Amino acid sequence: MEQQMSMPRIGDIAPNFKAMTTFGSLDFHNYIDGKWSILFSHPADFTPVCTTEMSGFAQEKDFFDAHGTVLMGLSIDSIHSHIAWVNNVREKTNVLFNFPIIADIDMSVSKLYGMLQPGESETAAVRAVFFMDPSKKIRLIMYYPLNVGRNMDEIKRVLEALQTADANKCAMPLNWKKGDKVIVPPPKTMEELDTRLNSGLEMVDFYLAKRSL
Ligand code: BEZ
User: Fold this and answer.
1) Rounded to an integer, what distance in angstroms lies between the CA atom of residue 97 and that of residue 94?
2) Share of residues in the chain with pLDDT > 90 (%)
C-alpha cells in the first residue's frame, strides 16, 4: 500500500520551519506570532493562473492589514525565479507581490504541509491555503487543483467568519457574510433550553437560533 503523507489538520499548531523567501530568511513562527496568518502555495512561477492569484492576494493587502493578517506564499521554485517573476509582474502590471514568497526548492515545507499531492503533480505544489489564528493554530484549510484558481471573495469571507466567530462565540450559517445574522450555540442544559425558548431570538427550533451582531 502506498504510504500516506502526514498532513497538518485543523486544530494542529502550524508546523514551524525556516525558509528562504523574497523577504530574506524567515522563521515561520516568528513571522506569524500573535497575528492571524495565511500560508498559501502556488504550483509554479511564470504561469497564468498563479499570476492572477498572487496578484489577487497583493491587491487585497489593505483588507488583510485591516484584519491583522499576514501572508506568506510558497512554490517549489528558486529564489531567483521568484525575484524575476515578482519583478516581471510589477513591470507589466504595476502590481507588487507585497508578501514573502518561500523558495521551497528542496520541497521540505511543501511536504510538511501536504502541499505535494502526487496524484495531481509530482513536481508542483497544489493550490493550498492554511489559515492560522494568533496562537498559530490551524483553523481552516483549502486545497485546489492545478487547473482551478482560488476565489479571493471566499478567502476573505472565511477569514472574516473565523474572526467574527471567535470574537462573538457564535457559528456561521451557509453562505454567511459580514453583516448577516450568526448562529447562537445550541443550549447544553435544560435551564439553557428554557432561557432559549423565552429569548425572543429568531428560531427555527431551539437548536437553530440566529441573532444579529
Ligand atoms: C497556472 O498557474 O496557470 C498553472 C500552473 C501549473 C499547472 C497548470 C496551470
Assistant:
1) 10
2) 94
